[in-house]
Amino acid sequence: MADKVIVIGAGAAGLMASGVAAENGNEVVLIEKNDKPARKVMITGKGRCNVTNNCNLINDLISNVPTNGRFLYSAFSRFMPSDTIDFFEDMGVALRVERGNRVFPESDRASDIVDALNHFSQASGVKRIKGTVKRIIVENSTVSGVVLDDESEIYANKVIIATGGASYPLTGSTGDGYKFAEQAGHTVTEIKPSLVPLVCHEGFCMDLQGLSLRNVEITVFDTETYKEVFKDFGEMLFTHFGVSGPLILSASSHMKNMKERKYEIHIDLKPALSYEQLDKRIQRDFLENSNKNFINALDALLPKKLVPVIVKLSGIKPSTKVNQITKEMRAGLINILKDMKVTVLKFRPIEEAIITSGGVNVKEIDPKTMESKFCKGLFFAGEVLDVDAYTGGFNLQIAFSTGRLAGESV
After folding, report:
1. Per-residue model confidence as pLDDT tens digits over 193-212
2. What are the extents of the domains in the chain?
3. How far apart are CA 28 and CA 15, in angstroms?
4. What phi and psi values does residue 356 have, to the nearest 5 degrees?
5. How does pLDDT run across 141-179, given as a tens digit for each residue?
6. Contact at 8 Å (CB) between 352 and 173?
7. SS3 label, residue 277
8. Which pTM value belongs to this model?
9. Is the domain covering 197-347 a CATH 1.10.260.40 domain?
10. Which of 166, 236, 233 is nearest to 208 (CA)?
11. Which of 31, 75, 130, 250 is 20 to 30 A distant from 100 in Cα terms?
12. Residue 221 near residue 264 (C-beta atoms within 8 A)
C-alpha cells in the first residue's frame, strides 16, 4: 500500500529521496523554505559542483569519511559513485573526471546538476510546497506529520528529514533538522565546522592575501603530541585572516579538539625538488643575478607577492648583494622554502564551513534503512547526520546515497 511521505528540505539528499520515494508509488510532499531548491549545491566547487568522486571500492569511499564512515556501508553499497554518474548522465548531464577522481559536469555549471535533480523529483510526481517546518508531529513514538510556521498541519505516514547541517546558513542550512531529531528523542553530537578556512597567527598571511599557491605540499602537526595528522599536495590560498583553499579545507577535517596554537602547518613551496636540487637551482639563479640585491634575485623562483615575505623570513638583508650570500645563508633560505611554518589559532566560523561536523547520532539510526530507532516512520538523509567526509565529491555522494536509501526504505 502506498504511503504518504513528507520530505523536509529540497537539497541534494531531499531531492534524491523525494524522487525515489515517489518513483516507488508513494504520495510525496517535499517542503522547502527557500524559493529555489538546492541552493548549497549551486555554490559547491566554486559554482562548478564536484558532484561525486569516481572511487568505486567501498572501503576507499569509507576511508574518505573520517566521521562514522562504517555507518554508510549499506547506503554506499546501494548507490555507489558509478550509480551517481549513471544517474546524471541518464538525465542528460555530461560529466568528466578530473585530478583526484573528482567528477564535474562538462559544462562546469552547478546549475545543470540542480536542474537534473529538480527535474527528477518533479517528473517522479513529487508535490512541492514552499514553507518552513516548525516541528514534527510525534505520537506514541511514531511520526505522523509536520506543523508549518503558520500552524497548518500536514499529515503523513513517513517523514524524511533532509535539512542539511548548520554551514552556509544563507542557503537554508540553519540546523532545523537537529531540533526535529531532538523532538523525536534523538541526541545530536557537538556541531562544529569542517572543511573550513583557518585563522592563523602569522602577520605575513595578510601580506599575502589573495595569493594562490599551486603544487605545494603541506604537513600538519599536532604540537601537543608532535604527531603528523595530515599531509597532502595541491593548492592553497592566503587570506586576510590566514589560509584557505582545497588543501587547507581537507586538513581542517583532521583537526580535532581545536584550540589556539595546537596545530602547525608546514608548507613545502618546492616539493618537486629535493634540498640538493633546490640548492643547485638557487645557485644557478644567483649566478645569473650575481650583482643584484637579494630581494631582486628571486623573481624566477617565487611569485612576486611572496618574495618580500620569504626575504624577511630568511633573515638575509634585502639589500645584500647576491654574490655576498654565503652557503650558510643559502641553507637558511632553502629551509624556509621547504618548511614555511604557519600557526593555526582557530577555525573560521561555521557559517563559512563547507560542511558541518556533528549531527544526529548515527547509533540511533538503522544504517540499512536510515530509519530512526526511536521513532517509527522517521528517516534521515544527508548532512543532518553525524557523518562528514573530505573534499573531493565525497560529501555530495553521502547525500545521494543516504537520500536514495531513505527514499527506497519508506
Report:
1. 888 999 999 999 999 999 99
2. 4-192+356-409, 197-347
3. 11
4. -105, 135
5. 999 999 999 999 999 999 999 999 876 566 555 789 999
6. no
7. helix
8. 0.86
9. no
10. 236
11. 75
12. yes
